[in-house]
Amino acid sequence: MTNDECKKVVLDIIADIAPDEDLSNxxxxxRLRDQLQLDxxxxxxxxxxxxxxxxIEVPEADYIRLASLDSCxxxxxxxxxxxxxxx
Amino acid sequence: MNSGSEYDVAIIGAGLSGLAAGIRLAHFxxxxxxxxxxNAVGGLNSFYSIGGRKFDVGLHAVTNFVPEGVKGTPxxxxxxxxxxxxxxxxxxxxxxxxxxxxxxxEHELHFSNDFALLESEVAARFPRQIxxxxxxxxxxxxxxxxxxxxxxxARGFIRRSIDDPLLEDMLLxxxxxxxxxxxxxxxLGQFSIMFRALYLEGFARPFEGVRVMMRVxxxxxxxxxxxxxxxxxxxxxxxxxxxxSALVLDSGEEIQATHVLSSIxxxxxxxxxxxxxxxGRTLGxxxxxxxxxxPPSALGWGSDTIVFFNxxxxxxxxxxxxxxxxxxxxxxxxxxxxxxxxxxxKEGFFRVTCLANYEAWTGLTPEAxxxxxxxxxxxxxxxxxxxxxxxxxxxxxxxxxxxxxMFTPTTxxxxxxxxxxxxxxxxxxxPDGRTPLSNVYLCGTDQGMLGIVGSMLxxxxxxxxxxxxxxxxxx
Lengths: 87, 475
Prior knowledge:
The structure holds two protein chains of two kinds. By secondary structure, chain A is mostly helical.
């Protein structure tokens, strides 16, 4: 999985849990919280969807790594690739 | 739908808060079951049919309504967290409401879903108070959606900015009628929740009433894998070492659950635990409903959605000593929402709600109860009609009436199980939802959020806080 593919996965999830947000101009290097109305519960939803849809587990200590799209990609791409290698 | 007797979460009560909590938990893969004693869902916001006509219970209007695109509001939060599309609730905004005070309603404040209207009304009628009023609104915009500042008097807060008791009472009247369990004053937190819900945001209603929203919630809950057992009340909560170890159902069956969310009220939940509780002072209501063969506007009654009225010098919000307090009340015309071009309710509705004393309605023989209802019905309506344009001919209402119904505090108690038929629960709220048992939490009226949107938000936030986030913290 590439970084861009991973960012799309995250944006797709956000689009579903926050359909009222405009996601066309999300800056990858800016914290999601600072450009979208997402609170800590919304991040819990993102984590849940990652588990449900993609089998990716994110422990609470790592939530901080989901702060921006760039940091999401950096953190999640190895997890996606490890999962793909196993199957 | 019964697939066993062990759950991650058991929810007591299938009202709006219980259903919302259930959806949230089921989404997260929890094994959840809702136990409801009644055969219908909805709790304090349910619906029923008589003679082929559909009636809403409780709901005059959905408060906290904001149009699409307004962010950071309770409505947006519940839609998001329950994965509900705005269009599914099909909410139609109000036409406009007013507060009418004085023997013939000579003091008026109109308000709508556009806060600027109320602001201009205050500026026009209370010019010396407008800066204070703006200050109050500005402060409330900065307060958390869940209220906060418990234990502070709303009247004290208002008086720091406004020194006209008439305006103070006129602003408080709708907020108290739509959500205060406390007499004559409100907690500042409750006041800010209600000020936001009614004045900064506004009223709406689905064309087909509250049942539309219930259908959406039930469908989401079912699709997420939640279970529901109707006509299946919880008789007691068995505890061991400070935790609920089992629920005993009315049938005697025992249920195990890791967490219990109870939406039935604080005193009611304590009673299930075997605690001796006193319900304390509560506020109950009577409501008269007239079904008309024409819209209320055809009687010359204009297009008011809701009218909050009071005939006395000061507004008294107390448990009355008489069967009903006819000095003040609420008129609701469900016809007067913007349902869209060519969409009108088939019949007209005229609903009037007044404070009522629970004791005055209990312990009566069925005949005496019916007689009291029959005697009070026209009095409640007459009290309200002082604040509406005069009818011509004077008997136009009875000529137009095709059916009537009326509920009292005992009706509410019978169908919802809320002690003394209390609509807004007990005066003391439990914002954190905690109970003496470490795995039993409250949601719904006694958790502190009010109205239909508030109830759902309560269920969601209690499920988040006590089950979903707690689990994340532990893992």
